[in-house]
Every structure is written in structure tokens, then in C-alpha cells.
Amino acid sequence: MTYNLWQIRTAKGYSLRELEELSGVSKTTINNIENGKANPTIETLRLLAAALEVELFDLLKL
């Protein structure tokens, strides 16, 4: 599965570090998700969606 995380993060102007601080998810994990090297848990996606102020569904690229 692929995710819209990079597109949403960059559109909102957040660096990896900023999103890490807002979400509590490590920048390494965020980077790995963005590059398809990690499969996030629902909880991780929930934290990222909340930090980015988007719906969880928005992070999923269908």
C-alpha cells in the first residue's frame, strides 16, 4: 500500500522534524513510510493524520 504522507506533509510546509514533534512519530519512521520501507500501524497513521489535521482516509492512496 502506498500513502499520501509526503504529498500532504510538504503541501502543509512541514519538515520531517516538525511532523515528528507534532505527531510523536519518529522522523525515521515517517521517512520510511514516505519511501515505502515501512508499513505503519493504524495508530501511527492516526497520530500522523491528527498532526496534519486531515482524515485518516486522506493518508491512504487508493
Automatic annotation (TrEMBL):
GO cellular component assignments: cytosol
Stretches assigned to the HTH cro/C1-type domain: 5-60
Keywords: DNA-binding
Origin superkingdom: Bacteria
A GO term for molecular function: DNA binding
PANTHER family: HTH-TYPE TRANSCRIPTIONAL REGULATOR, METHYLPHOSPHONATE SYNTHASE
Name of this protein: Helix-turn-helix domain-containing protein
Species this protein is from: Lachnospira eligens
